[in-house]
Amino acid sequence: PRLANQIAAGEVVERPASVVKELVENAIDAGSRRIEVDIEAGGARLIRVRDDGSGIGEADLPLALSRHATSKIVSLEELEGVASLGFRGEALASICSVSRLELVANAAEDPQGGWRVVVEGRQMEPRVTPAPHPRGTSVTVRDLFFNTPARRKFLRTEKTEYGHVEEAFRRLALSRFDITWVLRHNQKIVHQLPASIDTMARERRIGALLGKGFLEHALHLDLGAGSLRLWGWVGLPTHSRAQADQQYFFVNGRVVRDRLVAHAIRQAYRDVLFHGRHPVFVLYLEVDPLIVDVNVHPTKHEVRFRDGRMVHDFLFSSLHRALAEARPGEQGD
Ligand code: ADP
Ligand code: MG
């Protein structure tokens, strides 16, 4: 099982940023209201994700680290319309096969309760000992790839790896405004984002994560048609310093990179004559979970719509209309 875990780890754990994504998705699935991410040395030395979610009980702790142990899917039918982010039960097993992992959790209200389990490269049966922890879970991943030197060698500089971590954090924090987020790198707070879902608070968060300029030249939209709703912010071409990589698209709260979506947005941009401009956007598409599969692959952020054409047309026409109304020089005032 150890080798199988290390092979699986190659799929899920590419670099520190992928560990952050998996641990944070677990924290989100556990219903957390507050998630703190600590990073040292770009994540190669330490990654810690601390949450105030449901926690994990004593008996379930070793189970959480074993392969294909998931508490999230009961039947295959449930895969349709699955709402939780993880469901394969391989992330923690994969991560602990290539790191020194410590899990401390408390599933009860008793603040003195809590249990701890430590594994190093998965070489032994995990032993569970009492350890106080407030309700919730802390996972600490040290020395990523310490036992797979070939992979450790592929880690880039601290700055590059940290950049990937921050980008993963940005996507996650943009996906859930109702959660309070903290990101620290080498003990310094980089982002502290209080939970709030009113529009001004959302815009404050976007400003903090993407820079203030993003919103100064962005159009806020909120459009619905039938069971589809599209809302968010689209950059206008007056934003001359827009970074081309500021493209965030979420489907039912899950970040997605999809050709059909990208095409619809590009097409709408081009039609409104924003020539040569890279579209920048933070957009949220909400659809009936039954007409979309967001769990095609654990890491590739792919999505499969039951009726892709309909979704494409909705995106294109919504954006086209909103952008045309905001076209420079044609505004009412
Ligand atoms: P998956 O998320 O696909 O179920 P993981 O390997 O990521 O698989 O996690 C295994 C299990 O450990 C989860 O199903 C969940 O029961 C438990 N778990 C992991 N992280 C947390 C957390 N932060 N809070 C509560 N439970 C957790
Ligand atoms: Mg998971």
TrEMBL record:
Species per Swiss-Prot/TrEMBL record: Billgrantia endophytica
Function: This protein is involved in the repair of mismatches in DNA. It is required for dam-dependent methyl-directed DNA mismatch repair. May act as a 'molecular matchmaker', a protein that promotes the formation of a stable complex between two or more DNA-binding proteins in an ATP-dependent manner without itself being part of a final effector complex.
Example of a GO biological process term: mismatch repair
Keyword DNA repair: yes
Record carries keyword Hydrolase: yes
Record protein name field: DNA mismatch repair protein MutL
Protein family according to the UniProt entry: Belongs to the DNA mismatch repair MutL/HexB family.
Domain of life: Bacteria
A Gene Ontology molecular function term of the record: ATP binding
Key words of the record: DNA damage, DNA repair, Endonuclease, Hydrolase, Nuclease
GO cellular component, one term: mismatch repair complex
Residues of the DNA mismatch repair protein S5 domain: 206-324
Coverage span on the entire protein: 23 to 355 of 663
